[in-house]
Amino acid sequence: MKDWLRPNYRMKSIGEQEFAFHSHTQFEIYFFHQGDCKYLIHHSIYELHPGDIIIMDGLTAHRANPSKFDLYERSVVHFSADWIQPVIEELRMPELLSPFKEMSNCLLRGQDDGERELILQSIKSMVQLMNEEYSFLLRPEVEAELKILLLTILMQIYKLSKKENHQLAMPKSEKVLHVENIAQFIQVHFRNSISLEDISTELNLSKFYLSRIFKEVTGTTVMDYVMTCRLNQVKFDLEMSPQRTLIEIATESGFESQAHFSRFFKKRVGMTPSEYRRKKLKS
Known about the structure:
Blueprint: E1 5-13, E2 27-34, E3 37-41, E4 44-47, E5 53-56, E6 62-66, E7 72-79, H1 81-91, H2 98-103, E8 106-108, H3 113-132, H4 140-162, H5 174-189, H6 196-203, H7 207-218, H8 222-240, H9 246-252, H10 258-269, H11 273-282
Helix pairs in contact: 3-4, 5-7, 5-8
């Protein structure tokens, strides 16, 4: 059940907690409550306002970068499309998943209090039900109730996505625009050998300035972002291309040394590339 549905209601944190770039196969609904937070998806950066909702396909690398000086509060739902798909097909409402597939990574802003409250109450009810009934999750009535709650959220998300105000023109500072350009350049070129000098020359920014603003906005260094892009590509290929060798995948993702690749992967993922592939293929 945890892989099918994982709701979290009003999670709070403050201080030095690190939120690493990550990706997953589940769709994600992210609701921002309070704090000072920038959210990074691929090479886009969103400066969040209370009440903002982000819908994500999950596969695109993403991370939150909240201020360590402010309380950071959010609600999040991860869910498997395969788990809810039979119910959606029975209802003949395939469009309920279209925001995640067609809009993929999108910020929804401007919903009224009633719309927000319906989504939040459904998330809260999910958490309560899973806590109360955790030892009975195989009971059909419990799973049915969780699916009804998720459908309520998906219906609301779908209606919000159809509104004209779902993609507001949000002005961005020159610094944020520079960081988006840096991230976009890395996304295009991470499979090749890449250096700060390359980025500096391409974007006509000093190495010191681009390093400083990238760290300030994203919470990570430029070269760590390069390595994260490579790692996410490797993880995707290990799962989706079982016929390819580890060396092929690592090399084509930008890793020049097999030994360095193996050490880096185990340090970041907690298991070897071979163990990761076996785990994913079994699931």
